[in-house]
Specification:
5-stranded mixed beta sheet; single chain; 2 domains; 5-stranded antiparallel beta sheet; mainly beta; 22 strands; 2 helices; 314 residues; Immunoglobulin-like
Length: 314
């Protein structure tokens, strides 16, 4: 064999061995991490549900758990300006789990409650896990998300009438946003004095030619009736704490459904036919007629003017 050819064969073999050492033997032990979102564009402060799938191809059962100095589960989120975003709570952790060999697990995580993602622009998101027994990290391919804002249809500042926050101010906004295949209506409630977002709920599809009906009851809670499809309406009642009180579907008969406020301050739907959720599913609701918008369990601070000073969640 030519000495020059033999040298290159030995060099190539050495390079392959070096590659296996540097990559931790991925050909022998591999964990696949996949990250996905329902869509690519979201409005600011709405729930960003990340679905993370972890597949164990290592040939052995793997225990995923935190160590003294390492969290086993996390995300890398890069801002439009190339800066990595730290989590709101650095002590956030996921319960330990065992992934059997050849199997996979999936987790759905709301990034809005974990990371301050309120600045408009495009973000790169990766999911990363640490496997203690293998002593290394595995990451997903980056997913690109765009944060933007909807068109404001209606906005009103009101006072809190009852409860522990009596006397405080809340700002209620109704937003319209173009999704890939439909037009959606959003409800946002915030504390303008403390700069805290209490909720940004997607209420479901809306028809552009139909302006939603909006009424406030005696306690300043908001009632919304939107045309979601031909002859089909969605009714939503939300409190000033950001929680959905009621959610119903109506269809037109001889008259169009409408909101009416009684003298004592109660708001109810008049006209139309109530659709029993046990008998008919609604294509207009986010998933079905009994579905409610994805809740945000904790208030979300607005992004401060100084990005290095992130306020704490109340």
């Amino acid at each position: 064999m030519n000495k020059k050819i033999s040298f290159f064969i030995r060099l190539k073999t050495l390079g392959l061995l070096l590659f296996l050492v540097l990559t931790g033997g991925d050909l022998l032990a591999q964990v696949r991490v996949d990250l996905s979102f329902q869509r690519r564009i979201y409005i600011a402060y709405e729930p960003l549900i990340a679905k993370v799938t972890i597949e164990n191809l290592s040939g052995q059962d793997l225990e995923l758990r935190d160590t003294d100095d390492t969290k086993w589960f996390g995300f890398e989120i890069e801002t439009p300006h190339g800066r990595l975003i730290p989590p709101r709570n650095i002590n956030y952790s996921m319960p330990p789990v065992i992934v059997p060999s050849g199997q996979s697990i999936a987790r759905a995580i709301n990034l809005t409650t974990l990371y301050p993602i309120g600045e408009y622009g495009t973000y790169l998101v990766r999911a990363s896990i640490f496997v203690p027994s293998l002593g290394r990290y595995f990451s997903s391919s980056p997913s690109r998300l765009e944060i933007t804002e909807g068109d404001t249809l209606w906005r009103q500042r009101v006072g809190v009438a009852n409860g522990p926050n009596t006397g405080e101010t809340r700002e209620i906004s109704l937003l319209q946003f173009k999704l890939p295949h439909s037009l959606a209506l959003y409800l946002r409630i915030e504390d303008p004095n403390q700069g805290i977002i209490l909720c940004t709920h997607q209420l479901g599809r809306t028809v552009s030619r139909g302006s939603p009906d909006i009424l406030l009851d005696a306690e300043n809670e908001v009632h919304i009736l939107q045309l979601a499809a031909p002859k089909k309406y969605l009714y939503t009642h939300a409190g000033l704490d950001g929680k959905i009180r009621d959610r119903k579907v109506y269809e037109t008969d001889k008259s169009r459904p409408a909101l009416k406020k009684a003298p004592e301050g109660l708001v109810h739907v008049v006209g139309g036919i109530y659709v029993d959720p046990e008998q008919q599913k609604s294509e207009a609701a986010p998933t079905n007629v009994t579905s409610r918008p994805v809740p945000i369990p904790t208030p979300i601070p607005k992004e401060p003017a100084n990005k290095d000073q992130i306020p704490k969640i109340r």
